[in-house]
Amino acid sequence: MVNTLRIGGMTEPKIRELLADHGVKVSAGQINRILLMTADMLRDEHLAAHRAGMENSPVVGIDGTHSTCDGDPRVCHIVGNEVFTTLTTTEHKDRVTVYGVLAGAPVGHRVGEHALAHPDLGVAAREVLRRVHADELVLAWADETLTEQATKLRTEGLDAAEMDSFLRSAMPGAGSETLRHMREATASEWLRSVLRSLPLVMLTDGGTNYHGVLEGLQLCWVHMLRPFSLVTEGADSTRVLMDGWKLYNRIQTFREAPEPIEATAIAADFDGVFDPARCGDADLRRQALTTLLHKDELLTVLRYPFVPPENKQTISASDSKPPGINAKYSRATREPPRGDAGAAPRSRPPRRRRAWWPPRAAAIGSNATLSNTSSPSTFNTNSTDRSPP
Question: Where are the domains of the chain?
Fold first, then answer.
């Protein structure tokens, strides 16, 4: 019963109150233990569902929010799309951690062709990984432990602690950036060995920890337009915000019936809407310039119309979080304000704009699915499985 109520959206304190009203006395800690025990029993099913969704989806959304778990700072990652959603709690939010979240397991490391092609690897780092991949001595004075670690890195993979030990021995004088790039390259290779195919596009906010993880990246338009609703109110900021939502609606219409001419027109109008030269306020001009710099990632949807322009699944899933997690999510992201969504935005001292959403943007907070969304004919398959699932 406790699990059924929690799945239905009832909080743990309310579950306790309901049971007390019916004469059942149970502590808050016991309710939490019941939920966690159930979660432990579903670990294997959770992993199977997560990997099935990852391996059979052309696009996946991901978002991470800082939370607390038993009083300790943690990050709650929401991964999914319209057919699956999983939540994972980790200690960090860096790119290496993201690889583990996508795999549904603690991150590992391997060496292969994909790792060797990593664009950020330096000369020395690439040479070390090349020697491991070619089954050569990493160092002329390599001891037995280092040789065994190199062999395991090439064949089975190393966990995070083993990878740290390998790097300390193989790259004793390397800087933190070099070691980070080696961890990212080998974690990327490991992910492709764990999952037989990967989504083509990742849908997320502007966090740099998500860049370069999958082949394509679509930035969420809701995250992109939000800062424009918070800058100092004025004629220019109102124009950018209104025109930005109009462009968003055009993209949604384009997805229903993609036409190359309309894609070209949207890309051209994007430059006009977010032109810094048309913005008198310094903060607005700076935000417009930042948006222009991410134009390609914001308009990935024009190349892949099956990709939604907003991270709807992870935003709506923020109402559900694992037991023991005190996640803090922005209310303004999930639902429009009461009243007329098309009304002029209200102001307050020091005249900062209140967040507001037009009618079509309000659907982001609902469970409605996108209609007439085409799927790609091929998937981004890995070398371990060259045919689409």
Answer: 221-310+335-365
